[in-house]
Design brief:
The chain is α/β, with parallel strands linked by helices. The protein contains 15 helices and 17 strands. An eight-stranded mixed β-sheet has the order 1-5-6-11-10-9-7-8, with helices on both faces. A six-stranded mixed β-sheet has the order 13-12-14-15-16-17, with helices on both faces. It is elongated and about 95 Å long. The structure holds 6-bromopyridin-3-amine.
Length: about 450
């Protein structure tokens, strides 16, 4: 605390009064709970990963779109008890509006499609990479934000759309050096469960809640699943039947139960047939237990998983043909996936596939004397004009400059000195000789002029 009483004022003494001694309290320099800073090396990896996402999106001729991270809360209010809607990062803004930091991308995409209406021609193939949020009690210490790559096809009702999206995933994994021995893609359809629920005369309005509960398979015990299903009104024998079919890994067995004309079976057969033609059959497998936890899926759903079973789902997606009508407009068939930036990096680390992304600088320019700042500036400007990345270094000892050049993998070290330096540094590969109004620099092999 300052010694307010004893400090003399300017009137009492010549010169400034002594600075009041106060205790400085430092702010918390950590980012908010559940969020991350990205240092340069983290950003190099993130940019590299996002560049892969962008390149795969380009290969499938998707166009990039973007949305605000802040959205109206109304976009995400759903009654199916999903985890994602129970962890909304929501608040009231200064205008009294109920808003959220978006927990996912798809509803924003649906909003934009509706907003564009007839001004866009279908099919739309859109992708984005954006930060998504959740407000989870930090008891579990999990992150509250991650970046998601989303690809969506709007306006295609046939399973060709799902086949294209899965092709995108396979291409991405292969580009990262991941093989089908490392990762698989489990595929099923909400229509499987739907057909079953109908055979047990479960009312349709319960379907979404059942899907959300069944998605917890593997996360909570079977007994807890059965208890939750019974609690929403599913009869015990229906629960037993559901759990039995959900264990199916064979389309043939599914067909035996649902019959050859079941829509779910036809969709899945078509998808697996297309997969043969794409050449990615070895990546995919039917698994009736895949339902995904988002209420709005209506058809095929899929998720990529690590075959060692150490990690959470790498990505997931599916068909959502009725999302738009929940926003009060006509439905347009749609499907898409979300691909987070965290699990994939954990997998790359597990597999030793994280690339060595070194910092790179073309040139370092170092004036050997303080009065050479001007000529050094000319050289820097000239080199940058030519598109070279230049790190201008000053007020350092030469030994530090050499180490720095190594650290940043500089292509060239350019020392700006006047003519007497040349004698001293002739052994150095690059020397600047400053002649009146023009600068020359040379390396062992050739002379460059400004
Ligand atoms: N939906 C969502 C948002 C943020 C994180 Br971290 N995980 C999932």
């Amino acid at each position: 605390a300052s010694r307010a009483s004893s400090i003399p004022t300017h009137d009492d003494v010549d010169g400034a009064a002594p600075i009041a001694v106060t205790e400085r309290t430092m702010i918390d320099v950590n980012p908010p709970r559940g969020t991350r800073d990205f240092l340069p090396e983290d950003m190099r990896l993130r940019n590299w990963l996002f560049q892969q996402f962008r390149e795969v999106s380009r290969l499938l001729s998707f166009e990039e779109v973007d949305f605000p991270v802040l959205e109206s809360e109304a976009l995400f209010i759903r009654k199916a008890g999903e985890e994602i809607t129970q962890q909304l990062y929501n608040f009231e803004d200064k205008g009294g509006r109920r808003v959220v930091l978006r927990p996912e991308i798809t509803p924003s995409l649906a909003r934009l499609v509706i907003k564009q209406g007839k001004s866009v021609s279908l099919p739309l193939k859109w992708f984005t990479i954006g930060q998504c949020w959740r407000y989870e009690r930090m008891t579990r210490g999990r992150r509250r934000e991650h970046y998601q790559w989303n690809m969506d096809i709007i306006g295609v009702s046939r399973v060709r759309a799902e086949a294209e999206l899965i092709h995108a995933l396979v291409i991405l994994f292969e580009r990262l050096g991941i093989t089908s021995a490392d990762v698989g893609i489990r595929i099923s359809s909400r229509k499987v469960l739907q057909a079953l629920l109908q055979t047990y005369s479960i009312p349709e309005h319960l379907f979404t809640e059942v899907f959300v509960i069944v998605d917890k398979l593997g996360k909570i015990t079977k007994e807890e699943i059965e208890k939750e299903l019974v609690s929403v009104g599913v009869s015990l024998d229906a629960v037993k039947g559901l759990v039995e079919v959900l264990s199916f890994k064979s389309l043939t067995r599914l067909e035996d139960v649902l019959g050859p004309n079941a829509e779910a079976v036809a969709d899945l057969k078509q998808l697996f047939s297309l997969a043969e033609n794409y050449g990615y059959s070895q990546w995919i497998q039917f698994d009736a237990s895949v339902v995904r936890g988002l209420a709005y899926y209506t058809g095929i759903v899929f998720e990529a998983f690590d075959k060692e079973g150490k990690l959470r789902a790498i990505c997931g997606g599916g068909r959502y043909d009725r999302l738009l009508s929940t926003f009060g407009t006509d439905d347009i068939p749609a499907c898409g996936f979300g691909f987070g930036d965290a699990v994939i990096v954990e997998l790359l680390k597990e597999k030793g596939l994280v690339p060595d992304l070194i910092r790179q600088v073309d040139d370092i320019v170092f004036p050997l004397d303080v009065e050479l700042e001007g000529p050094a500036s000319k050289i820097v400007a000239s080199l940058r004009q030519k598109g070279r990345s230049v790190d201008l270094v000053e007020d350092k000892r030469l030994k530090w400059v050499f180490k720095h050049a190594e650290r940043v993998n500089a292509g060239r070290l350019i020392l700006v000195g006047n003519s007497e330096w040349q004698r001293v540094y002739k052994r150095i590969s690059t020397i600047i000789v400053v002649h009146s109004d023009c600068c020359y620099y040379l390396t062992k092999n050739k002379m460059f002029s400004k």
